[in-house]
Each structure stands twice: as C-alpha cells, then as structure tokens.
Amino acid sequence: MNQMAPVVTNLDVDLARTFVAICETGNFSRAAERVFRSPSAVSLQVKKLEEILGRPLFRRETRLVELTSDGEHLLGFARKMLKLNDDALAYFRRPVMEGRVRFGAPNDSGVFAVPEILKRFASTHPHVEVEVRLDTSAELRRRCLARELDVALFTGGEGGGLPVREVHTEMLVWVGLKNGCAVTRDPLPLALAEQGCFWRSLALEALDRAGLDYRIAYSSEQCQAQIAAVEADLAIAALPASVLSPRLVRLDGPGGLPPIGSYRVDMMTREEAGPVAAALAEHVAESFREHAGQGMRLFA
C-alpha cells in the first residue's frame, strides 16, 4: 500500500528570499547572484516552492519574469516573512546596550507621546535607564543648550542654534463642543495654554487678524484641561486636528473662525551622548512615522 507524501506545513525562508530576489531583479541569473546560488539552483528552488503551494508562480510562455496572480499574492506574503525573519535576527544579534539617557518633551506629550515611546524603547533596550523631563518647549531648549538633555522634543519656532530635525507636523484648528453655544458668545471664551506657548500665540494672532473679540476664560499648560473646558461648553480651544471626535468638532473653515495654521515638532539629539541617545531618537522618530496619518493623538 502506497503511503501519501507528508504535507509541507511551513514555507522555507530561503525559498521566500530567492522568490523575492527574482521578482526584484527581474532575472533568474541576477537573483542567483543576490542569494549566492547558481541559476540552476534558483530554478530548482522555484520548482520546489511551486510544488509546496500547488500553484504556478511565473508565466512560462514568456522569456521575461512575469508573475501569475498567485505569484503576486505570494510576493506580499514573502516580503512580510523576510521582514519578520530579519527583524527577529537583528533583535537578538544586536549588542546589549546599557547606560542612561536624558529625554525631554513638552508637558502634554506626557499624556500622549511619551508612554508610547518609552514602551517601545524599553522593549528593545531593557537595560537603559531613561530620565524623563516634561516642561515647556522654551525651557527644554534652554536645557538642551545647557547640555542637560540628550534627546528632546519641542514645538514652535526654530531650534535656537540647536541641530534639530522635524519629526511631526499637524494643523491647529479651532475646536468646540458639537452643537455647543460657546462659539456663539461675544467675546469668544477661549481655553488656552499659558503665555509663552506657541499654540497660544498662533491662535491669538489669527483672531487679531480677523478683528474678533475674545477673552481668556481658562488657562492651563495641560491640553487635557483645555479639552475639559471645551467638553463642558465653557470655551473653545486651539488644538491639533487629531483631537477631533464626534463630540469635539472643528469650528474654522468657510463661514467659521479664521484658520490658525500648522505647528511642527522638532527633535534634538546630542551626538556626543553616544549610541544610547541615538537609539532613543530613532524610536521617537519611528513612533511618529507609524502614527502619521492615522489620526492618533501621539502628540498634543
């Protein structure tokens, strides 16, 4: 009695790597050079891969490398496999990093950005001590110039002579309670940060240009306190567009309040702080990249 061949339940990463190499180089010979195999070995790998999947991956009637529909689907899966494989190897092969890094961020990022960043960094650098300071952007700049911080985020204005790179930009909008009355009051009741805040300056400049009367009804460094005043319909506020929700609606635009403009988040990394600071800076930048365009409040 003939026994059935065992069903293959795993895709070989080497086969996936060869397949991706063929797709990216457009040629079996060039793919062979990339994966350090002979062209005949590459052809055998493709044949084995097609046998495992039970589907043709390339159209054979052309001299060009042309994927079938199944081949196109496999290319997406194969790239994900290779990335996961390479990320796992990179994680365990990287040297253990130890030390201490001083990280500064504006007050409200303590609610949004900092927990996400620290969680990500701790998962890959568990032996690094991170000293966190939350403060105003102006104070963080001062501490950077005094070399009291290794990595810092701040908003508004230029770097003040510091080497910085932009990691985030977002529109500031007028926010009010949906169907609320605060926006109809004269003068307009505002919930803003304290004097010296870049957002506050932009908001008041917009109202002054439009010739609108206003009063500062609530003042707080904490974005959450400003949002609380808006949700109670006691005031309107100038906040990042990412805070908008079914309850908190945008009030500027055609027929509404004057536009405010955008703000950016800059990051300073002190090069002489070494690889620990550089690693944290990369995690910060990656956090912002991953959340860009997702409407998530990573920074506010």
Automatic annotation (TrEMBL):
Recorded hits in Gene3D superfamilies, A to Z, give: Periplasmic binding protein-like II, Winged helix-like DNA-binding domain superfamily/Winged helix DNA-binding domain
Pfam families named in the record: HTH_1, LysR_substrate
Report a single Gene Ontology molecular function. DNA-binding transcription factor activity
Keyword terms: DNA-binding, Transcription, Transcription regulation
Query: Taking every annotated instance into account, which residue ranges of this chain make up the domain HTH lysR-type?
Result: 11-68
Coiled coil spans? none
The family database entries (InterPro entries) matched by this protein are listed as:
LTTR, LysR_HTH_N, LysR_subst-bd, WH-like_DNA-bd_sf, WH_DNA-bd_sf
Family the entry assigns: Belongs to the LysR transcriptional regulatory family.
Cross-referenced PANTHER family: HTH-TYPE TRANSCRIPTIONAL REGULATOR LRHA-RELATED, TRANSCRIPTIONAL REGULATOR
Task: State what protein this is by name.
Answer: LysR substrate-binding domain-containing protein
Naturally occurring in which organism (per UniProt):
Jiella avicenniae
- Which taxonomic lineage does the organism of this UniProt entry have? Bacteria, Pseudomonadati, Pseudomonadota, Alphaproteobacteria, Hyphomicrobiales
